[in-house]
Write a structure and sequence with these properties.
Layout lengths: L2 H27 L2 E8 L1 H4 L21 E10 L4 E2 L4 E3 L8 H11 L4 E7 L20 H19 L3 E9 L2 H5 L1 H4 L2 H15 L6 E5 L7 H4 L1 H17 L3 E4 L19 H19 L22 E9 L1 H4 L21 E10 L4 E2 L4 E3 L11 H11 L4 E9 L21 H17 L3 E10 L2 H5 L1 H4 L2 H15 L7 E4 L10 H13 L4 E4 L12 H19 L9
Parallel strand pairs: 1-5, 1-6, 2-5, 6-7, 7-8, 9-13, 9-14, 10-13, 14-15, 15-16
Antiparallel strand pairs: 2-3, 2-4, 10-11, 10-12
Helix pairs in contact: 3-10, 7-9, 12-18
Length: about 550
């Protein structure tokens, strides 16, 4: 080997060693934040499949190993365990830890480590009880040992760390037993206090994930889930170090039969991890940046002007589940919709208020799970067809996890789920704002998409027309528009929601009694497995606009 090459090799080696030493110094100076992820099946990640992660445009690549995140875990009966620290990657069933770590590491410089202990079908009354009664799996001592062993390994490595927070999702099995559900606040309080004491971390924060009301338990165990929610609220109100993570707006798996599942599934787990991350990042003063979409220099309306206000409301398909903004560009005739439509005013409340606007914005994609609803194509079609002297404004109020009783003007025993007062107040606020600015504003119509969860659940499907009539009548009364038109789009007849024919027949019968109700048929639209998907949602917006344009000058006639 000649002298030149030898010197080159020696220089490269010296630089490499220097770089490694520098990296070790940086790591040694940074405090590793350690998070505990714990709970039952929806924390395990049951029915979440690593091989499906790339099916969801917003999460392509999220399943890649994260070599900069330490991971220690024990699941199920202990057969699935890391036996020390390993790089984080999705397991055969993965939970929110994957996208939590990914999102947090995108926002911060410090290293993080995750300890996970979760077992499906477990209760806080027995399995997670720190007093370890004879009945149960004694998960508290097992989890405590996992934490101590994992932290001990960090000590051996010379890694400086601190316990940062507990991410908790559990309670389904306590909820199912009325006796256990009524004891949940006491059990959770004991668990939180014991873990803080045993780990000598009195200020350890807990992030409490909501047991989703979107799944089957939100219907067939509605009252028990309501009691359970009250128990959680007691703990939240009593402990300022607890944080609430809403999840009922997140994607939730649907079985082949059309039954809402018991688990979030792949997409829901990916979204839940980001929900935990967003809450944590807000707490440490590094919130995810959201674009300011408000009009900066007043509304682009010349006075005097007439504003035609359109209301879009409903649940899964109206909100836009499985319709992805990133796929719009694949459709040349709709590609322009990824940009703001500044000639259409827009206000929205999504996920039951999880994301909402406080002022008017131009119509366009909103930073909400990467989804969009029919409003984009609906607004574009109307703007193209309506007199240019009139302004088009859209108010969208949706909650993909809602069901028939939630929209009742009479309310329900589970009052925290009631949406009607929020809906009517949101419409009024939008209308009042325009009127106060000197614009003539009238609600032109309410566009409603029939509820998917109602269509599956027989006790709800049998009453859907009755409930919808109450909603229509009360909305007309509260807005002082007795002839307010309603446009109701059907569920696609090839969706697997079981009672679709029953529901669609009932809606057609309801429309036959009211000349101001128009049914929008959707059987000719493309659709995905359970939802319209990107293409179907774009075409649904067109169909809704066409229905309005057909009947707007024919108040007593129906489109053929």
């Amino acid at each position: 080997m000649n002298l030149f090459y030898l010197k080159t090799i020696m220089t490269v080696l010296a630089l490499t060693v220097t770089s490694c030493i520098a990296m070790q110094l940086v790591i040694a100076e940074e405090v590793t934040r350690v998070f505990l992820f714990a709970g039952q099946s929806n924390m395990v990640g049951s029915d979440a499949r690593a091989d499906r992660i790339d099916d969801y445009p917003n999460f392509k690549g999220a399943g890649e190993p994260q070599s900069d995140v330490l991971f220690s875990y024990i699941l199920a009966n202990g057969d699935e365990a890391s036996k020390g620290w390993v790089p984080l990657k999705p397991l055969q069933a993965f939970g929110p830890e994957v996208t939590f770590a990914r999102r947090v590491r995108q926002q911060v410089q410090f290293p993080i480590a995750i300890i996970k202990s979760a077992v499906g079908g477990t209760t806080i009354a027995f399995d997670w009880n720190p007093d370890a009664p004879d009945k149960g799996q004694k998960l508290y001592p097992r989890t405590l040992k996992l934490i101590r062993d994992s932290l001990g390994e960090l000590d051996k490595r010379g890694v400086r760390y601190r316990l940062e927070a507990v991410m908790w999702h559990q309670g389904e099995n306590d909820m199912l037993d009325r006796n256990l559900g009524k004891q949940y606040a006491e059990g959770l309080t004991k668990l939180v206090a014991s873990l803080r004491a045993d780990l000598k971390a009195p200020d350890l924060k807990w992030y409490l994930g909501e047991v989703s009301e979107k799944g089957i338990w939100g219907m067939d165990h509605r009252s028990q889930l309501g009691i359970f929610r009250q128990q959680q609220e007691q703990v939240l109100q009593a402990d300022p170090l607890l944080r609430w993570i809403p999840t009922s707006h997140l994607a939730f798996e649907v079985m082949g039969s059309g039954q809402p599942h018991y688990h979030f599934g792949t997409q829901g787990q990916l979204q839940m991890g980001e929900a935990f991350a967003a809450a944590y990042l807000r707490d440490i003063g590094k919130p995810l940046a959201a674009p300011d979409r408000r009009f900066k220099q007043g509304l682009p309306i010349a006075k005097p002007a007439r504003v035609r206000l359109f209301v879009l409301a409903g649940q899964r398909n109206m909100e836009g589940e499985d319709s992805f903004v990133s796929e719009i560009a694949q459709h040349p005739s709709y590609a322009r919709l990824v940009k703001d439509q500044r000639n259409v005013l827009f206000r929205y409340s999504l996920g039951g208020g999880v994301t909402s606007s406080s002022e008017w914005e131009p119509l366009g994609p909103v930073e909400f799970l990467g989804n969009f609803g029919p409003e984009l194509s609906f607004g574009a079609r109307l703007r193209k067809s309506i007199d240019s002297n009139d302004t088009v404004a859209i108010v969208k109020f949706t909650h993909s996890g809602a069901q028939g009783p939630d929209w009742s003007p009479n309310g329900s025993p589970e009052s925290h789920r009631d949406l009607y007062p929020k809906l009517i107040n949101f419409i009024r606020a939008a209308q009042d704002d325009l009127n106060q600015q000197g614009f003539e504003c009238r609600v032109e119509g309410v566009f409603w998409h029939t509820g998917e969860n109602d269509t599956y659940f027989a006790p709800y499907s049998q009453r859907i027309a009755e409930w919808l009539k109450q909603l229509i009548d009360q909305t007309r009364a509260d807005l002082s528009q007795p002839d307010l038109p309603w446009f109701i789009s059907q569920q696609h007849e090839r969706f697997p929601w079981v009672h679709i024919k029953v529901v669609n027949d009932a809606l057609n019968k309801l429309a036959g009694t009211d000349p101001r109700i128009t049914i929008i048929k959707t059987s000719g639209l493309p659709h995905a497995r359970h939802h319209f998907g990107t293409t179907g949602t774009l075409m649904l917006g067109d169909a809704m606009a066409d229905a309005y344009l057909t009947v707007k000058d024919q108040p007593t006639k129906k489109p053929k």
